[in-house]
Amino acid sequence: MKLGILGGTFNPVHLGHLLIAQDALEQLGLDRVLFIPAATPPHKTPDRLAAGKHRWAMVQLAIRGNRQFAADNLELRRGGRSYSVDTLTILRRRQPDAEFYFIIGADSLPELHRWRAIHRLARLCQFAVAARPGCGIRPPRAPVRWVTVAGHPCAISSTEIRERVASGRSIRYLVPEMVRRYILVNGLYR
Predict the structure, then answer these.
(1) 99 pairs with which residues across the strands?
(2) Looking at the whole model, is its pTM more than 0.70?
(3) Which residue, among 67, 73, 64, has the nearest Cα to 10 in the 3D structure?
(4) Mind listing the pLDDT tens digit for each residue in 5-50?
(5) Helix%, strand%, coil% for the chain, nearest 5
(6) Is 143 within the bounds of a domain?
(7) What is the CATH number of the domain that holds 145?
């Protein structure tokens, strides 16, 4: 089984995340893409981080109806800082024969050498690198296996979505409609 892993804060999940996942699924012949919301991201302090229960609910709403997308809340259940190497170690134990592709943006590739236990992580998976607007694909400084996911560089950002909500502007067409409604009903990012 070929599994794509898309980890992130998903604060909130948006159409760009879904598009990257779909591109990876199709181009790499993946059987499934697993969305894994981070409890606390190690490399950034997100502005207005919604509670894990809200981010989990939004991911579930976003992927509803796509049988090749699934979600796992293992990082949220574990709590604390979410390191990819710990998550992939757990996933490898669960599915020892799976071929894992960790989906990242091109901006993360040259920074992989800074990730915790990157050499161990590189043995657990290969990286699927998606283009990002304004960011060329620069080779990593860490010895990792990686493939490029061509597709639709998308300028949507979770930061922009939070700012739009806070200022009362529409986020329609940036997030799935069910996620938009969830944000409004629950008063997130105000």
Answers:
(1) 2
(2) yes
(3) 73
(4) 999 999 999 999 999 999 999 999 999 999 999 998 887 676 689 9
(5) 40, 20, 40
(6) yes
(7) 3.40.50.620
